[in-house]
Design brief:
This protein has one domain: Double-stranded beta-helix. About 25% of the residues lie in helices and about 30% in strands. A hairpin with a 5-residue loop joins strand 9 and strand 10. The radius of gyration is 18 Å and the shape is globular. It binds 2-oxoglutaric acid and fe (ii) ion. One of its GO terms (cellular component) is cytoplasm.
Amino acid sequence: MPQQAPLSLDPGLTPKAWREAFAANGRLHVPGILTADSAARLHAALTIDTPWSGVVGVGTKLWNLPLDGPGALSAADDAALDRQVAEETRAGFGFRFDNFRVSDEVEAGRREGRLLEAAYDLLNGEAFLDFVRDLTGDPRPEYCDCQATRYRPGHFLTEHDDHADGKNRLYAYVLNLTPQWRGDWGGLLLFLDGDGHVSEGYTPSFNALNIFRVPQKHAVSYVTPHAAGPRLSLTGWIRTRG
Ligand SMILES: O=C(O)CCC(=O)C(=O)O
Ligand SMILES: [Fe+2]
């Protein structure tokens, strides 16, 4: 399987200079994380070369849904699922979006020559891990898991804090790869304080990295019907091997 050319961080990043800003609230929005060429190639890969599935969760229930072919839901069943998810999410945690679990594929040895494999390698290379260590002042980060996500109108992720027993998640990251986005389209990464107010919200701007300490309450706001395109990201957690 031919490998794709590597992806690169922007060489001008100065994470040590941003350490205080990160420490203030345990989060940071870093514009221009990749070279322009790497960001453009990744956006193209998410648009034309990603085998998306639907993923829906309410409480502890999880559905993985093929988006086309014989297993795909009919429009009527899809709408019924949306109604069920809305009903059950009213009382607690829920989400619906599309994803492709890059680390599951790579770690199972299923490399197919996709650019997303080069993204996995970038996130697990010393340059990115050093960037995180320099930004956070934390020597522990050892590796990253990664999934591609696509939020279309009607997609959302309710409040949660990313803690998962035994997963050794230190920081969460979201690399936004949507070329244009308006805040009024929804899909904002919201940070929620103890009173349930939004203390900060990040619009998914192109080629920006959002990074934040785990645990920390956050949500992705509902993507409105008037969003003119999908919200595309690579996201996951920066972890220790424990
Ligand atoms: O896509 C985002 O901005 C955040 C995603 C997230 O919080 C998660 O997947 O746990
Ligand atoms: Fe999260």
